[in-house]
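User:
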Amino acid sequence: MKYRNPILLGLVLSVAAVAQAHHSFAMFDNETEQTIEGTVKEFQWTNPHIWVQINVTGADGKVTEYSIEGGSPNGLRRQGWSKDTMKPGDKIVMKMHPMKDGTPGGSFMSAIVNGQPVGRQAAAPAEGAPAKSEY
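Assistant: Predicted structure:
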């Protein structure tokens, strides 16, 4: 088969590459909610998704670092976030969808930093309705 329009072929291939590059959220257990409490180690305000590293101290005194993936900076900015929303040392309570494989991490749902809700907090879902991620 001969391709008669190399520009169209190039456009189709580049769109396919971009679509393939954006990852899936299949690694998160979207049926489970987990709340962790700890200290912000690092807040990465980067595209395509923000990341929050949180140190959580267990009952045994052992510190576990969680890596939480959030939405895009653009989308979060429209919800009241900024690159200064949190900083290392801030106290944080975060609700997330945990990793399916049990590693310490998850997908952001909501957070309270130094006693203050972050961004616009969505209303609680109706009785029996599935919880929605807030980003």
